[in-house]
Amino acid sequence: DSNDITKVEEYTDAKYAEPNEKYFGKGEGKNIIKIHLESFQSFLIDYKLNGEEVTPFLNDLVHDQEKGFTYFDNFFHQTEQGKTADAELITDTSLYGLPQGSAFVTKGNNTYQGLPAILEQQQGYTSSVFHGDGKSFWNRDEVYKHLGINEFYHEDYYDMSEENVINYGLKDKPFFEQSMPYLEDMEQPFYAHMMTLTHHHPYLIDEEDASIEPAETGDGSVDRYFQTARYLDESLEQFFNDLKEKGLYEDSIIMIYGDHYGISDNHNRAMKEITGEEITPLKNAELQRVPFMIKVPGVESEGINHEYTGQIDVMPTLLHILGIDASDYIQFGTDMFSEDHKEFVPFRNGNFMTDEYSYVDGKYYDNETKEVIKEPTEEMKKMEDQVVKELELSDEVLYGDLLRFYTPNEEWEPVDTDNYFYGGPDE
Ligand code: GP9
Ligand code: MN
């Protein structure tokens, strides 16, 4: 009931981090293009296979500051069984996914105060999701209404002929190409979420789409992982060129993020070959880094930012960039650019990473020496308790549908799901 939400609010208020003046409001009213890199782990950045870069286009965005992107090299995914759906939920609500199952499916009819709805109500944004798969996968066609997503371009909007499709759905190159006219037609300012798909387990790729050779560990998924990553990288380059051609590049906020790991710990033998290191529990946790990079027009790139951050921090960061006070909303993350951003990143299983030490499966490790810390400090134990508490409070919000009882500010209007319909181009 409303007592429970008060408890949550006390926690998120205490955690709130003030905006950084350098960013606050700098992106107000600008189009936002959010690009989802399916199953992309950060170890791919700068990785060389047979002496060749796997993702030259992304590497260039990371290293060439002229391109305007700030890259967070200590950004982690925080997903569990909900995989892609968890990443969507976390980045658009700043709530955690559930310990089991997918909140998109089991809590798809909850009340949410999602980023798309807030942007529409505060600054007149329209929002859309682009994804070349069936609309009901992960219950998207229901939960998107509650998030306030205006348009959902799903497989009915795309040419899904055989040559355009592999594995789960539309290949990334035709996906971006065919999305362009819809994107151009959107009323501005828009918040557009482009969700790629080809770089997905088991990393199938047609011969004509593979520009590099597979790795040679003998583990097929790991070996092909590099080929589909390269294909994704090429599809991004094509998309950026199209955006430039259509005048949608320069003045847009562009954000790129990875949704979750692609190589599970069933592949540790092959990953030892790839990384040159034994995949210990700590190493496995370290491999949960996924890329996050963002370009805000008019704000110079910081190059590589080493702050420890996670998907939970994305929404408050974006709100502040647009000049919207994130403290009004129930959010478990904090602005990544803030001086008071809290440097601990909970994983859904209670493990967490900080800038100095990591807590993995009941043990603390020193980040530098990789050694177990035999006598954890009081401060470390407090952190462990805080992570448990944070995850529990977030769960209470979802299990109790507590946002029903919360009014963020005077302007907030609960989302009316009757206003949303994702039938298809002809309906
Ligand atoms: C399905 C796609 C993949 O539409 O988003 O989901 P995942 O298996 O990564 O959760
Ligand atoms: Mn995914």
UniProtKB/TrEMBL annotation:
Q: What positions does UniProt annotate as the active site of this protein?
A: T84
* Taxonomy of the source species: Bacteria, Bacillati, Bacillota, Bacilli, Bacillales
Pathway-wise, it operates in: Cell wall biogenesis; lipoteichoic acid biosynthesis
GO MF annotation, one? metal ion binding
Could you tell me where this protein is found in the cell? Cell membrane
Q: GO CC terms on record?
A: plasma membrane
Q: Which residues of the full protein are shown?
A: 216 to 642 of 654
User: What protein am I looking at?
Assistant: Lipoteichoic acid synthase 1
Q: How does it sit in the membrane?
A: Multi-pass membrane protein
Q: Could you say which protein family the record assigns here?
A: Belongs to the LTA synthase family.
Q: Which UniProt keywords apply?
A: Cell membrane, Manganese, Membrane, Metal-binding, Transmembrane, Transmembrane helix
Q: Where does substrate bind?
A: H200
Q: Is the keyword Membrane assigned to this protein? A: yes
* Organism listed in the record: Virgibacillus massiliensis
Record-listed Mn(2+) binding positions:
E38, T84, D259, H260
Q: Which residues form the Sulfatase N-terminal domain?
A: 30-324
